[in-house]
């Protein structure tokens, strides 16, 4: 996934948003994939292919959503992790030939290969994390559009910083990462226009030691609230006793006295929608990105936990006000996918 995302960066340069497709009743009927309607008593077989370990935050959220679907929707779920690019197509074929009707995963490291393989199995539904668009007839895409709660986290960081310098340690300067970091900083600048920003990219999606090292360097440079876009940052914040904002999941347990909150990506709305369409025999190639937004329940701000008692009332009120405006459609968080830089 790491290398694959870097390869497609140039393709996505300049994109500020994607076309989010909605299926109408007539469109669903017309786009039905032959032979996909399932018998009432048949368990839907769902598989996932991950380039990284399931503990990596991005992949973890997909995995957790599918495990929930296994319990609540009665699917049969199997997955493969740490799949190398050279093996991606082979694993896709094995699942497709093994009777799996829906296959999910991250195609960033194998964009062309995954689409080419999907075309060989037109009756199988494929839904992959991707930096490109969907491909007819059966290759749908998604990504973690969680910039809205990242912005809310920035409001808190801007209010809680005493040094006037906040930081972010992230994977790499690609659109899906940039938009989160930029939204975080935008929130902070909303409440404190003079806030200074420190940014570091570790060049990997899963390298906790390197992320921790980068975080320590920022803390030494004066950062007192840090956005842990990657694993490893919170550990540094705990050791240096500064405040942290987590990412992807509720990570308060990693530092109860350190982690205030953070954007959470809930993949279940995406997974649930895809499963329903496959079961109905009406799955189509579309962009599922909209299901990651707050209004769809695909993202939210993690609970404050211990900070619920210590976070200033005016800060919580501000966050709730902005949250309500986002959910009501009265406020839109800007999607800025340019690579952020330090002040």
Provide the helix percentage: 25-40%
Which stretches are poorly predicted, pLDDT < 50 over at least 5 residues?
1-39
CATH class of the largest domain: Alpha Beta
CATH-level-4 superfamily name of the largest domain:
Response regulator
Number of helices: 12
Shape: globular
What is the count of β-strands? 12
* Order of strands, widest sheet: 2-1-3-4-5
CATH topology of the largest domain: Rossmann fold
The largest β sheet comes out as:
5 strands, parallel
- Give the name of the CATH architecture of the largest domain: 3-Layer(aba) Sandwich
Content-based structural category: alpha/beta
Mean pLDDT: 89
Number of domains: 2
Rg from Cα = 20 Å
Question: Would you kindly provide a brief summary of this structure?
Answer:
With 343 residues, this protein is of the alpha/beta class. 39% of the residues lie in helices and 15% in strands. Residues 1-39 have low confidence and may be disordered.
């Amino acid at each position: 996934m790491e290398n694959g995302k870097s390869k497609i960066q140039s393709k996505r340069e300049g994109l500020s948003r994607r076309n989010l497709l909605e299926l109408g009743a007539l469109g669903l009927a017309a786009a039905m994939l032959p032979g996909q309607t399932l018998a009432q008593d048949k368990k839907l077989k769902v598989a996932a292919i991950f380039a990284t370990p399931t503990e990596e935050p991005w992949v973890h959220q997909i995995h957790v959503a599918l495990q929930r679907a296994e319990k609540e929707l009665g699917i049969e779920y199997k997955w493969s992790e740490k799949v190398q690019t050279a093996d991606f197509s082979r694993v896709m074929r094995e699942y497709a030939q093994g009777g799996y009707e829906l296959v999910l995963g991250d195609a960033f490291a194998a964009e062309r290969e995954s689409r080419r393989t999907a075309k060989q199995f037109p009756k199988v539904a494929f839904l992959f994390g991707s930096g490109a668009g969907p491909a007819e007839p059966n290759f749908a895409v998604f990504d973690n559009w969680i910039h809205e709660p990242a912005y809310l986290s920035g409001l808190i960081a801007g209010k809680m910083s005493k040094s006037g310098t906040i930081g972010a340690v992230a994977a790499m300067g690609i659109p899906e990462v940039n938009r989160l970091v930029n939204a975080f900083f935008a929130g902070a600048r909303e409440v404190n226009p003079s806030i200074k920003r420190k940014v570091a990219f570790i060049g990997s999606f899963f390298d906790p030691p390197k992320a921790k090292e980068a975080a320590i360097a920022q803390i030494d440079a004066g950062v007192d609230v840090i956005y842990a876009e990657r694993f490893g940052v919170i550990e540094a914040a705990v050791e240096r006793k500064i405040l942290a904002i987590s990412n992807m999941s509720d990570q308060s347990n990693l530092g109860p006295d350190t982690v205030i909150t953070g954007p959470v990506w809930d993949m279940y709305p995406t997974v649930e929608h895809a499963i329903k369409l496959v079961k109905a025999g009406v799955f189509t190639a579309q962009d599922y990105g909209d299901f990651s937004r707050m209004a769809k329940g695909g993202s939210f701000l993690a609970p404050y936990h211990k900070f619920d008692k210590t976070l200033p009332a005016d800060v919580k009120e501000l966050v709730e006000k902005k949250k309500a405006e986002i959910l009501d459609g009265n406020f839109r968080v800007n999607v800025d996918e340019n690579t952020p830089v330090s002040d």
